[in-house]
Amino acid sequence: NNTLLVSVGKLVPWDGDEALLTRLMAYDITTGKMTFLGDSTEGLTGDDVLWVDPEGKSVLMAYQATIYEYPSIWRVDIATNRRKLVQSSEDRVWDWYADNAGVVRVGYRMKDGGKWDMLYRAKDGDPLRTVVRAKNLEDDDALMSAVHVWSGTDLGYRIMKNEKTGRDALYRYDYAKREKGELVYDNPQNDIDDFDLSEEKGNGRIAGQPGHRCAFMPSRAMQET
Q: What is the pTM of this model?
């Protein structure tokens, strides 16, 4: 619909130091109009987009309603910036993930001493439940990594350690059973840092560590099953 989502940011004073403040804008290519998306009172991170409506009418955004709160999730109308709350904030949950239909499915709760929990729901309307209780950042062979879950299933993808190589690789993953599936992609030199899947079956993008080239990978291994 001729609209670009643009993340903007700047360094601001923060707790005796500096921190990056980000905001999300919608740029209409046809008219040149720039629309701010979000809330004027939100915290530092204001460009965390969890999902984009395929028709380009709305986005799911996670942000702190104020600097004193944990992030909640809002459906934001791109044309008007009207917002509807879809997920209230949870204590110490900073990272949220939605599936390809825009349903919030996963959250990571940080705890003292490097411990963390993964919260999960199978479908829209279900309560969040804790499916992983990790003792440290790499416990349970389950990195606190980017998440992709397919709508209507518990199946998706997750970055986990390849025991044969010691590198972080992309695997199929059953979020309900907490079971690692088949290896999808393992870079021969670098850890996998992030990944992104399109709505078209068989198309995906794998990103390595910062500073390394991305590997674009159309592959049957990344098709939805």
A: 0.81
